[in-house]
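Progress note, sequence design subtask.
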């Protein structure tokens, strides 16, 4: 969390008018400190130094440099850097697109509980990006992200249950996950839910409502993690 506040502070300082040049100089000096710490092997500093190159905080964007420093941090077990390496490889930013490498980096971050990485692994398994298509594995990763509150994972898991793709077809499970996603303002989930409800018996609808009550008893919509691959 502190890293995000620091990066926001730097973005503000580096984007202000010339009247605040002194503050920009201070921001540049702070980035210089992170460069020294990164070169000394500090994983958090390496991540922030890479973020600088990715987003052009103190000069032009340099995705290749970003990948270089994200990799250094990721190899030390920095979870967010591992996720970034997955994204850079999946999107071909600063490095050739390589879904197999992206999946390996996402898996490292996902096993540490990073929700965005869990979702992306589910997406790659469902679509067959870098791996043979495996909807069963996709459902497992979607469930992990859905249990953590990721609305898009809830929707995609609901669709798998609705179609019986990789899991046993189960309208109660399908509409439960779609309803939970809809409660987080996922418009596509709402449409899918409304399309499936007429196919359910009164008993199934009551089962679904009970599952929803168990999982989300009058909870307000939760803030969503940053967008994954798509």
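Output:
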């Amino acid at each position: 969390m502190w890293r995000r506040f620091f990066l926001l502070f730097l973005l503000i300082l580096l984007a202000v008018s010339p009247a605040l040049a002194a503050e920009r100089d201070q921001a540049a000096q702070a980035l210089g400190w992170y460069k020294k710490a990164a070169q000394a092997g500090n994983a958090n500093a390496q991540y922030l130094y890479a973020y600088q190159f990715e987003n052009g905080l103190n000069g032009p964007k340099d995705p290749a440099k970003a990948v270089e420093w994200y990799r250094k941090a990721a190899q030390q077990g920095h979870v967010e850097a591992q996720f970034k390496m997955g994204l850079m490889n999946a999107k071909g930013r600063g490095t050739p697109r390589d879904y197999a490498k992206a999946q390996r980096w996402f898996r490292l971050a996902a096993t540490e509980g990073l929700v965005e990485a869990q979702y992306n692994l589910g997406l790659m398994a469902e679509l067959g990006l870098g791996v043979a298509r495996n909807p069963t594995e996709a459902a497992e990763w979607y469930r992990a992200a859905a249990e953590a509150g990721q609305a898009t994972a809830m929707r995609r898991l609901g669709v798998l249950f609705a179609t019986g793709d990789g899991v046993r077809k189960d309208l109660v499970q399908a509409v439960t996950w779609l309803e939970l996603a809809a409660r987080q303002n996922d418009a596509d989930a709402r449409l899918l839910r409304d399309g499936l409800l007429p196919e359910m018996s009164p008993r199934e609808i009551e089962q679904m409502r009970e599952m929803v009550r168990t999982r989300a008893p009058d909870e307000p919509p939760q803030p969503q993690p940053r967008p994954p691959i798509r």
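The two ends are 24 Å apart (CA to CA). Work on this subtask will continue into the next period as scheduled.
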